[in-house]
Amino acid sequence: MADDGMLLNFELGDTPLTTQVKFKGGRWRDRVRAQKNVKRGQDSAADDSNRPNKRLRTVDHDGPKTANPNPSSAVWVPSHAMKTGQVTSSLFTSNPTAVTNFDEIPLEESEPAKPSNAPLSSEAESFLSLGLSRRVAQHLANKLEMKAPTAIQKNTIPQLVKEDSDAFLQAETGSGKTLAYLLPIVQRIMALSVNEDGTPKAQKVHRNSGLFAIILAPTRELCKQIAVVLEKLLRCAPWLVSTTVIGGESKHSEKARLRKGVNILIATPGRLTDHLDNTEVLNVGTVRWLVLDEGDRMMEMGFEDDIKTIVGKIRADKLLKENGEGVVLEGVLPSRRVTVLCSATMKMNVQKLGEISLEDAVHITASKSDMEDDGAKGSSEAAFSAPSQLKQSVIVTPAKLRLVTLIALLKSTFARKGSVMKAIIFISCADSVDFHFDLLKSPILLETDKDDDAKPNIHIQGTVAPACYISSPANPKVLLHKLHGSLAQPVRTATLHSFTDCKEPAVLITTDISSRGLDVPAVELVVEYDPAFAVADHVHRIGRTARAGRPGKAVLFLLPGCEEGYKSILSGAPLAQRYESILEKGFATPITSLPSTSAEGATLESEKQSWTSRAEALQLHFEQRLLAKPASGANADEETPKKKGAWAKGGKGGKGKDNIKPPDDPLLVSARQGFRSHIRAYATHVREERGYFDLTQLHLGHMAKSFGLREAPGGIGGGVMARKVNKSHAGAGKSSGGNHKGGDDDDDAGGAVDEAARKRMRDKMRSVMNAASEFNLG
Asked: What pLDDT sits at residue 656?
C-alpha cells in the first residue's frame, strides 16, 4: 500500500504519562473524594516548584485563622466533627455576601410614631354621637371598656345606621372593622324591640323572628372570632341569637340550631352554599344585610362561584316586609338588601367581587377625604399600609444560618421577663410547621402540669408543648403552639383558644391561615420566617400585632441576593439588620433547657464559648438529633415488625436479617418532608414578585442546613399526586395476582384505577387549596 505522505505529530510534553485510576464500590461521595485526591497528587507532581500542598483552614470570627495542626495528614478532621467520623461544614464559610449596605441605614427615630389605628379621643367623639342608642353605648363603655370609636368606625357607623346603600370598607389591620359593621346591624335589629328612649315595644323579636343578617368570612378561625365579638356585643340584647355554620363541624347540629331560630348567621361560603341547597328551614326572605369580610381572601381561595350562588339566591328570594309573627320590618330595617364588602386591599379580584355583590356602593375609609360615592371609581389607587406604630425590620440571613438565627431571635426575645408575652412565626407550608414544632418542643411534655386537678384537653396534646432552646432563667417556661389547615377543626379551635388565653409566654408557629382577621391580645412580635406569597399577605401577617393603637414589632427573614430587593416594595420602610448582631445578642449567654434524651445533646456549653461556636454547636446538635437512631420504645417496637419484611426484601440480593434497614428517626422524616414542601412553596410566589424569589438562585444544600439536614433530599418534584398514583398503580398490579403479565383486560383495569385515583386526588387537592391555600403539597 502506497504511502500517502500524511504525518501525525503529537506533542506529549515532558511530564510522564499517568494512567486513569477508577474507583469502584463504596459510596459515591467517597469515590469522588478519592478521585480528587489522586488528581490533586498528579497536579502536585507535575508542578516544577516544590511548594507544599495548600493547608486546610478554618475561620474563627473571634480570633485569627488557624491552620491545619497536622499538615502531613491527608484529611484533617476539625474539632466539631461528629463521632461517626463525618465532618460538618462551617456555618460561617461559603455564604453569599449581602447586597445591602448596612452602614448607610439610618438610626431609628427617638420618638415613637403616633398610632394610626388607635381609638379617637373620647372628648371629641363618642359612640352615642354616631347614632347608636344609649343602651349600646353604655354596654360598650362599661362591659367592653370601649370609650371612643376608631376612625373607620366613626365614618362607617353613621352611614350604615341612617342609609340603606351598599358600602365598601377599607382600613388598615387592627382598626376595628368588625365592630364597624356589627354595631349598625345590632342597633337596627334592636330597634324592632326597643324604642329610642329605651322602653320596650309591645312586640319583641326573638330567635324565631327571622334571619336578618348573614356574615361571610374565608376561614373558620375568622368566623369563630367574629362570633365571639358578636356574642359579647349581644349581651346588651339577650333576646337576639347568633350562630355559626362552618366546615369541619356536624351538619346535623348546625341544622338543629337553624331549626331553633337564629337572627345573625356567620358562615364560610362553602358551608352556607350547602345549607342553602339542602336545608329547608333556612329562609332568607327576611335577610337585610350580607357582609363579605376579607373579600380579597375569599376570591383568592376560589370562593367566587359560591359567592355568586349565595348572592343570587338571596336576591332571588322575595324581600318580606313583615315576618311570620306579624312584626313589621319596613321602616326600621333597610328597605333593600344591603351588601357590605370589607377588604384591606383593592386588587382586581376585589373589584370583580364588588361587581358581583355591590350596587351603587359608598367607599368608606379611615380618612374622611378618601370617601367616594362610587366604590369602584379611583379605587385602584387606594393604598393600604401597615400601622404607623409598628416597627418593621428585615434580617438578611444566609440559608445555612436561618435556623440558628431564628433560635437566637426568639431566645433574646424571651430573655427578659414581661418584655414579650406572645409571638407568632409565619411559615409557608404545613409540613414545615410540623417540623419546626417537633424540633423546638421539649421532650419532657408538661411535667409541671401533672399535679393539676383540671382535666387535660385531648385536642391540644399534639399541638401545644413546652419549648426548649428559647427559654431563659427569666422565662423558664415558654409554651409552643402550632396551627395549620391540615389539622382537624376541633384541634384548630382548641389550639387557637389555648394560645389566646395563655397567661405565660407563648409562641405560635403557623401558616397563612392565621394571617387574616385574627385578633389575639398581647401579640407583640410577628416573625415572617418565610416571606409571604404576596405583599398583601405580608401586610395582613404583620397586622396581627400593633392593633388598636398598641405597639408591636415585625421581623422578616430574607436571603442575600435577589431577595434583598423585596424590601423596597414593602410599606413602612423596614430597617435592615445584620444576622451577626442577632446571633451575638441571642447567644451571648449559654443555651439552656436543651433536651437531655441523648448523650450528644446533653452538653453543648463550655465556660469560654463565643457566640459563633455556640451557633455551630447548636447546628451540630440539631444534625445529630436528626441522624440519631429512633428511641427504643413502644412506637419503635410496633413499627419494626410491620416493615421488617419490606426491608429484608429491599436492595439487590437481600438475604433476610443481613439486609434489614433500620427505621429513620421521625424527626428526620419530618425534616425531609418539610424541606420538600418548603421548596415547592417557594416556587408559588405571585408572578409580579417572582423576580425577588428566583428558585434557580436558591442553594438547596444550604437551605437543607436550615432544616438540620446534611444534604438536600430528593423527590422535590414528586408531589402528592405522583406518589398517590404510583401507590394506587402498585396496588392494582398486586391485585391482578401471581406472575401474570397482564393483557388488554389488565391494562384497562389498571388505567381505570389510575384515572379514578387521579380524579380523587385532583378533587382533594382542589378542596384543600381552596379551603386553606397553604401550599400543603407535602
From this structure: 46
pLDDT at 505: 92
Q: How far apart are CA 479 and CA 452, in angstroms?
A: 17
Rounded to a whole number of angstroms, the CA Rg of the chain reads: 32
Cell numbers linked to 650: 429491599
Task: Give residue 535's identity as a one-letter amino acid code.
Answer: V
pLDDT of residue 36: 83
- pLDDT for res 182: 95
Please, are residues 280 and 274 in contact by the beta-carbon 8 Å criterion?
Answer: no
Which residues are bridge partners to 364 per DSSP? 169
Instruction: Give dist(CA 424, CA 402) in Å, integer.
Output: 17
Work out the angle at residue 636's Cα, subtended by the Cα atoms of residues 676 and 673, and round it to the nearest 5 degrees: 5
- The enclosing H or E element of 254 equals helix 251-260
For residues 670 and 462, what is the distance between their CA atoms, to the nearest angstrom?
15
Pairwise CA distance, residues 324 & 264, whole Å: 17
- pTM of the shown model: 0.70
CB atoms within 10 A of CB 67: 12
CA angle 422, 423, 429 (to 5 degrees): 140
pLDDT at 15: 54
For the CA atoms of 158, 160, 164, 167, what is the dihedral angle to 10 degrees?
Answer: 120
Identify the pLDDT of residue 747.
36
Interval 742-757: pLDDT, tens:
333 333 333 444 566 5
How far is the CA of 66 from the CAs of 62, 70, 71, 252, 547, in angstroms?
A: 11, 11, 12, 72, 51
Sites in the chain below the pLDDT cut of 50: 48-49, 51-87, 110, 369-383, 446-453, 597-603, 606, 633-658, 720-753, 767-778
pLDDT confidence of residue 318 = 87
Q: Are 294 and 343 in contact (CB under 8 A)?
A: yes
C-alpha to C-alpha distance for 553 and 476, rounded to whole angstroms:
23
CB 214 within 8 A of CB 306: no
User: What does the pLDDT look like over 481-513, one tens digit per residue?
Assistant: 999 999 998 899 899 999 998 989 999 999 998
CA distance linking residue 165 with residue 364, whole number of Å: 12
Q: What are the DSSP E strand ranges found in 5-157?
A: 57-58, 66-67
Q: CA of 52: how far to CAs of 42, 43, 55, in Å? A: 14, 12, 8
CA 103/CA 146 separation, integer angstroms: 45
Strand 167-170 with 362-365, pairing: parallel
> Which residue, among 162, 170, 223, has the nearest Cα to 353 in the 3D structure?
170
CA distances from 76 to 40, 95, 620 (A): 16, 22, 18
Cβ neighbour number for residue 456 with a 10 Å cutoff: 11
Quick one: which of 299, 296, 292, 300 has its CA closest to 272? 292
Q: What is the pLDDT of residue 478?
A: 92
How far from 742 is each of 76, 79, 376, 736, 752, CA to CA, in Å? Answer: 57, 59, 62, 8, 14
Sheet strand arrangement including 167-170: 242-245, 264-267, 213-216, 289-292, 338-342, 167-170, 362-365
Residue-wise pLDDT for 142-170, tens only, equals: 988 888 898 889 999 999 999 999 999 98
Q: How far apart are CA 648 and CA 8, in angstroms?
A: 59
> At a CB cut-off of 8 Å and minimum separation 6, what does 764 contact?
none
Cα–Cα distances in angstroms (integers) from residue 553 to residues 391, 480, 695, in the given order: 5, 19, 29
Enumerate the β-bridge partners of residue 125: none
Pick from 152, 154, 540, 169: which is nearest to 342 by CA?
A: 169
List, in order, residues 6 or more apart from 224 with CB less than 8 Å away: 244, 246, 493, 496
Q: How high is the pLDDT of residue 753? A: 42
C-alpha cell read off for 594 = 436543651
